[in-house]
Amino acid sequence: MNDRLVALIVEDDPGVRGTLVLFVESFPDVDILTAAGFQQASAMIATVARIDLLLCDVMLPGSLSGIDIAEAVAQTHPAAAIVIMSADPQEEIAGLTDRFIFMQKPFGIAELTDVIDNAFLRLRSD
Fold first, then answer.
1. Which is nearest to 11 in space by CA: 81, 61, 82, 75?
2. pTM of whole model > 0.85?
């Protein structure tokens, strides 16, 4: 079995996406995939063997949102830790946070570290 974890980062803002990539790269044994929107992410979700962590912005260009991506990952990669990110308050996406981890933008490095650490610990203990 491959001990490396696979993270998919879906963020339309190139600066934020790049920052998230740099941060996730600091964790050992992680392969990172990136997408700027639903179409790119959907192709990756359908073709990669495994996704362990999804970091996904809720607001993406087009008619489909990050919630649609989160739902697709939950269906095709049920063991994945799914983190949805939004500048909107959690109440705006009510009903989803019981299934997905919610992070309100802007968030700090310590908060993101805790979320990713916990996700990776859970995945590695399974």
1. 61
2. yes
